[in-house]
Amino acid sequence: MSCRGNVFNMANFLAFPAGGVAVVVGSGGIGGALVEALLAEPAFADVVSFSRSSAPKLDVTSEASIEAAVKFLGEAEIRLVIDATGFLHGDGLMPEKALREISAAHMAASFAVNAIGPALLMKHLLVRLPRAGKAVFATLSARVGSIGDNHVGGWYSYRAAKAALNQLVRTAAIELRRSRPEAVCVALHPGTVATRLSAPFAKAGLNVRPPAEAADDLLRVIAGLGAAQSGGFFDYKGEEIPW
Ligand SMILES: NC(=O)c1ccc[n+]([C@@H]2O[C@H](COP(=O)([O-])OP(=O)(O)OC[C@H]3O[C@@H](n4cnc5c(N)ncnc54)[C@H](OP(=O)(O)O)[C@@H]3O)[C@@H](O)[C@H]2O)c1
What we know:
Elements: E1 20-25, H1 29-39, E2 44-50, H2 63-72, E3 78-83, H3 104-125, E4 135-140, H4 156-179, E5 183-189, H5 211-224, E6 233-235
Parallel strand pairs: 1-2, 1-3, 3-4, 4-5, 5-6
Helix pairs in contact: 1-5, 2-3, 3-4
Bound molecules: NADP nicotinamide-adenine-dinucleotide phosphate.
C-alpha cells in the first residue's frame, strides 16, 4: 500500500538519487515509525509499507507473498528497503534462559522470521535495486546477535537467528557489490525501543527509546552509509558492532 503523504522536512538523504521509492517491511513499533519518518523525507517519491496486514500481504515466512509484493512494486526504482520484521516472543514462546528450555519448534520459528525471512527478502529485493547510484537494503538485527559481544548468555534462538541474519547480510553484500557497486546491504541494531517486542524485557535502568526517536536515528545512519560500509553491522549511533 502506498503511504505517500505531502509532508516534507529538511532533506538529509541527499546522497540518494531523487525520485526513488522507499520500502518498509513490517509495520510494528519501529517499522511504523520508519514509515512516518520516511513520509517526511523528500528524497523519496513514494513510501511503500508491506506487512502481514497490508494489501498485498507480506509474510516473510511465505516466499510467494514476498514475490507478490515485489511484483506489486512493478518498475518502481527502489532506492531503500528496510526490513523491520522480527520475532522474539509470542504464541506461547518466550526467550530461553537456559539450555533446558530449548525446543526445536521455538528455534525453527525464530529462524523462520529472523533469518530465513530476511534472506528471502534479500533474494527478491537486492536484484531490484538500481545498478547505479546509492541504494540501501537494511535489515533490523540486534546487538544480542553479536557473538563477540555476548557476555550474559540466554535467548538462544533469537541470538542464533540474528547471528545467522548477520552472516546472510555479509554474504549477500559481497554478491551485491559485483553487480551494484554503489549499493549497500547492512544489519542495523535499533537500540532498546519501546515496542511490543521489547515490552516484557524493558526493565528500569535500560535506555528504552521511543520508536520515533529510533526511526530518526536509524535513518540518520542509513543516510550516512556508503558502499564502504556495505556488509557491516552498525548500531543506531552508526558505530560498528563486533560480529
Ligand atoms: N524493540 C527493541 O528493543 C529491539 C531491539 C533490538 C532489535 N530489534 C529488532 O527490530 C525489529 C523490529 O522490532 P520492533 O521492536 O518494531 O517489534 P514489533 O513492534 O513487535 O514489530 C515486529 C514486526 O515484525 C512483524 N512480523 C513478525 N513475524 C512476521 C512475519 N512472519 N512476516 C512479516 N512480518 C512479521 C510483526 O508483524 P505483525 O504486526 O503482523 O505481528 C511486527 O510488525 C525486529 O527485527 C527486532 O528484532 C528491536
